Amino acid sequence: MAGHGGIARLLERVRPKLVQELDINKVFPRLLRRGIFTVSEEKQILGPADPKTRTETLLDFLCQKDRNVFADFCKTLEECAPQLLTCIVLESQQGKSYT
């Protein structure tokens, strides 16, 4: 798929849809169980009361992580928001220059 910078660009392209539709209360606990975020990152993500702001913060951190974390994020979406994973896959197919 995409390299580190490509993953960040891909997530930026689908960010509006993720912010609008991602249920952070379903996804985030699963990501925590996968050990993706540090305690500090967890606190920053959970800090805001607004779910959309939490999602924005989560995406900011994901953009800084490696492709293994992105794969874990995709697996989590497959489990609890497959329609959003489909959006990511379709977007990645439209912009093949993510390397």
UniProtKB/TrEMBL annotation:
Q: What name appears for this protein in its UniProt entry?
A: CARD domain-containing protein
Q: Which Pfam families match?
A: CARD (PF00619)
Q: Which domain of life is it from?
A: Eukaryota
InterPro entries named among the record's database cross-references: CARD (IPR001315), CRADD (IPR037939), DEATH-like_dom_sf (IPR011029)
CARD domain segment(s): 9-92
Q: Which GO terms describe its biological process?
A: regulation of apoptotic process
Question: What organism does the UniProt record list as the source?
Answer: Elysia crispata (lettuce slug)
Q: Note the CDD domains from the entry.
A: CARD
GO terms (molecular function) for this protein are: death domain binding; protease binding
What SUPFAM superfamilies does the record tag this protein with?
DEATH domain
